[in-house]
Amino acid sequence: MPDKLSRRIAIANDHAGTELKTALMSRFPAIDWVNFGADTSESVDYPDFAHPLAESVANGQTSLGILICGSGNGVCMSANKHQNIRAALCWNEEISALARQHNNANVCCLPARFISEEEAVAIVQRFLETEFEGGRHGRRVEKIPC
Question: Nearest-5° angle of CA 78, CA 81, CA 86?
């Protein structure tokens, strides 16, 4: 079985998340990162980056996604407009694990202005390593799309 951290993962960010994105990409070198994000701190509009990432995950080009903006909310709201996307705002490891276990989240949204690099690494690690539990949670996840 391949290493769970050696998958093709989408990552995107706005200007507030550029530094954190760069740090995450360097901290997880085994991941085949597909970068849809901004590469500078010049002000940009987060939906312009969240939508291409969500499309990539929704159509199976990438297995999961990591989105980063200042609060994490803007990219999360944008991604969740797409069918088959379950984006979760994750600010600690436990929320990250529960998003995968109970909600089958396929996009992890990070609030760059409210977590440290070390916290972000731990959150992403848990998100990537945690599996969906299914069972009663599967029934609930099936009810999410409109």
Answer: 90
Residue 14 lies in a domain: yes
- Annotation says 69 is catalytic: yes
Distance CA 45, CA 88 (A): 20
Domain interval for residue 115: 8-142
Say how far apart CA 95 and CA 143 lie, in whole Å.
21
pTM assigned to the model: 0.94
Q: How many independent structural domains does the chain possess?
A: 1
- Catalytic member of 15, 51, 69, 137: 69
CATH number at residue 101: 3.40.1400.10
* Residue (of 85, 97, 83, 89) closest to 67 by Cα position: 89
Domain assignment present for residue 87? The answer is yes
Q: Which amino acid is it at 3?
A: D
pLDDT of 4-47, one tens digit each?
A: 555 899 999 999 999 999 999 999 999 999 999 999 999 999 99
In a domain, 2, yes or no: no
Give the separation between CA 68 and CA 132, rounded to whole angstroms.
22
Q: 75 in a domain, yes or no?
A: yes
Catalytic residue among 51, 76, 90, 102: 102
